[in-house]
Amino acid sequence: MDEDAGIRGRRARRRAEREAKARQKAEEQRRREEEKSRERAERAAAKEREKTERAEANAAKAEEQRRAKDEKRGGRKQRREETKTRRQEEQQAKAAARAQKKTARADKRSAAKDSEPTGKRREKHGRRRAAERAGREGLAPETLSRLTQYGLNVSPAEPNERAEPEPPTEPRPAAEPDEPDV
């Protein structure tokens, strides 16, 4: 029976070895399964994080675009208002300049009426005066204007002096007979 016992012992040992091997295999299988499920879970979590991050990035981008669009609209509106204000200011400035020119012209006209004539009015006025003087003195207006131009003061004659000079009261001596007439 020793043999039997030896066979049984070997069988038991083999069985024990097989069982140990099977437990070891099962343990390795379980560890592999756990590793795989952990990796799957990690991948799923990573995908979920990526998805969430993408969604947040898209939301942030959309918010930024909306904000930029609102700013652009606000900027356009503000520029429009600034342009409108600037145009109104320019129109007011032009109107003020026109009014100022108008009053300056009116002041100039009133001052010109009160003072000596200038420019064309002076020429017209000078011709009129020259014509009056010429009428009084018996000279042509052009001659009088030339005389005044060259600085010769032709004073208007008084009414007593305008008449022809009176003949001298003393008779002129007659030409001397000794002198031959040539």
Number of strands: 0
Order of helices and strands: HHHH
Overall SS class: mainly alpha
The chain-level mean pLDDT equals 78
Task: Bin the helical content.
Answer: over 70%
**Low-confidence parts, pLDDT < 50 over ≥5 residues?**
158-163
Shape: rod-shaped
Question: Helical stretch count?
Answer: 4
Major sheet description? none
The portion of residues forming beta strands comes to under 5%
C-alpha Rg (nearest Å): 65 Å
Distance between the termini: 210 Å
Q: Could you characterize the architecture of this molecule?
A:
With about 180 residues, the protein is mostly helical. The protein is built from four helices and no strands. Helix 2 (about 120-135) packs across helix 3 (about 140-150).
Task: Kindly summarize this structure in a few lines.
The chain is mostly helical. It has helices at 2-114, 119-137, 141-149, 159-162.
